[in-house]
Task: inverse folding
């Protein structure tokens, strides 16, 4: 009886093991069969939103500054981020008066090398893409302007805004003209008018630019722009990319706080302010040693100014004139020039500001209003400190040996010619030029070591208690 029971349990155990081993195989077969059947069935007429370009985000960058190396690095990072995220488009919202041509070339190179379609959008209303900004606009896959904006005026000029004469001017003009023609021809834009913006300094409103085929679209806002871009083909290398932006989420790509600060510092006006205020801080510290705060703040301002100069095309002549102005201000402390050194320092400060930056872009030079304001501020500050110094110098000395001269005291003994006098709460040895009786008022006329030279003040007699 035991054997049948044993054999029954054995068969049951084997059956359970067989079923357990067969379950994964059955599930695998069912999965394969389901996949085959699903592939064989026709697609649903109303599918869920596919994971295509329509679902990709749009990277949005705001540029409201002059064109300088910090901005070039930032836009290069933005292009790299858009490529890494496989974004549907990179939209650069632009408002700039111009900037450095070297930085402009770096930006256009980044745009042309991008795998992501790049849209340059001159916005909001009232903005401009002048000078260097016009080159960036022409480098975009899609050039767009908002109503009431303008672009153009890209003629190269000299460091002080003057026309570059001679062969050098012709070379600069031809180089810029060829550059803008190459950008315009890449996207089938009007080369003649694009060149006119360089050669003749022409500027165009949004409507004029659209009519002249310099831009592709006019959009009043970002939502309208995304709708207008949807379905637009863009040539990226050998491939044609169709943008799907109608329902794309927008991600703002912003500068870091540190890079934003560097971008603010890298401005000609800010650099000139930092140089001037830094110099005045050191001047104040030399005038009043031990004040500490003006010297520390002045040193920090100068370090920040040197960073600004490291990314801007400054002139050593202008920088030398500013430091010469500082030396004149300091020399005014030691040399009696009746204000002539202060006037010379102010003149050097003005000339240094005018010559500090050598750039063909008006936006890359120091504002004349700022130069005048800082010149007046410097003149007033140095003049005020000089007036205080002269007033302090004329004030009688009240401490030390010099402070004892012409002080009055009382003779505590007869001075014939030597005795004791009471001055400033102290008893001194004194010698008199003529006999002095006890209790008579005396005046100090000299001092050597601890011996006072006094003379009597006739008609003045004080009691020892009052002294």
Result:
């Amino acid at each position: 009886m035991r054997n049948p029971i044993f054999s029954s349990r054995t068969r049951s155990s084997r059956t359970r093991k067989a079923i357990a081993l067969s379950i994964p195989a059955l599930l695998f077969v069912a999965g394969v069969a389901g996949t085959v059947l699903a592939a064989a069935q026709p697609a649903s007429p109303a599918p869920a939103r596919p994971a295509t370009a329509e679902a990709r985000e749009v990277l949005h960058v705001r540029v409201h500054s002059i064109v300088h190396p910090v901005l070039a690095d930032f836009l290069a990072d933005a292009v790299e981020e858009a490529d890494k995220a496989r974004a549907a488009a990179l939209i650069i919202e632009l408002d700039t008066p111009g900037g450095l041509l070297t930085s402009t070339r770096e930006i256009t190179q980044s745009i042309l090398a991008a795998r992501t379609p790049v849209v340059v959008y001159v916005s909001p209303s009232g903005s401009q893409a002048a000078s260097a900004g016009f080159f960036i606009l022409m480098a975009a896959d899609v050039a767009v302007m908002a109503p009431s904006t303008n672009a153009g005026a890209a003629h190269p000029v000299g460091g002080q805004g003057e026309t570059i004469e001679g062969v050098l001017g012709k070379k600069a003009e031809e180089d810029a003209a060829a550059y803008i023609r190459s950008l315009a021809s890449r996207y089938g834009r009007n080369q003649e008018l694009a060149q006119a913006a360089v050669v003749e300094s022409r500027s165009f409103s949004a409507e004029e630019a659209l009519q002249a085929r310099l831009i592709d679209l006019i959009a009043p806002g970002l939502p309208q722009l995304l709708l207008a871009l949807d379905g637009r083909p863009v040539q990226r290398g050998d491939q044609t990319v169709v943008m799907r932006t109608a329902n794309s989420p927008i991600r703002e790509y912003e500068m870091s706080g540190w890079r934003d600060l560097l971008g603010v510092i890298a401005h000609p006006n800010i650099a000139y302010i930092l140089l001037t205020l830094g110099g005045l801080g050191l001047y104040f510290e030399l005038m009043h040693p031990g004040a500490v705060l003006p010297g520390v703040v002045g040193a920090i301002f100068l370090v920040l100014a040197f960073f600004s100069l490291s990314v801007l095309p400054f002139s050593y002549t202008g920088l030398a004139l500013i430091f010469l102005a500082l030396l004149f201000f300091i020399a005014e402390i030691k040399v009696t020039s009746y204000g002539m050194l202060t006037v010379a320092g102010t003149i050097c400060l003005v000339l240094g500001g005018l010559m500090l930056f050598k750039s063909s872009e008006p936006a890359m030079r120091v504002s004349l209003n700022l130069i005048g304001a800082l010149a007046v501020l410097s003149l007033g500050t140095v003049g005020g400190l000089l007036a205080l110094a002269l007033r302090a110098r004329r004030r009688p000395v009240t401490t030390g040996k010099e402070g004892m001269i012409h002080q009055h005291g009382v003779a505590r003994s007869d001075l014939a010619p030597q005795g004791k006098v009471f001055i400033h709460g102290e008893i001194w040895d004194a010698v008199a030029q003529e006999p002095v009786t006890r209790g008579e008022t005396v005046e100090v006329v000299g001092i050597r070591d601890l011996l006072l030279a006094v003379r009597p003040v006739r008609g003045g007699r004080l009691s020892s208690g009052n002294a």
In short: Residues 2-40 form the longest helix (39 residues). Confidence is low (pLDDT under 50) at residues 1-54, 158-165, 461-467. The two ends are 140 Å apart (CA to CA).
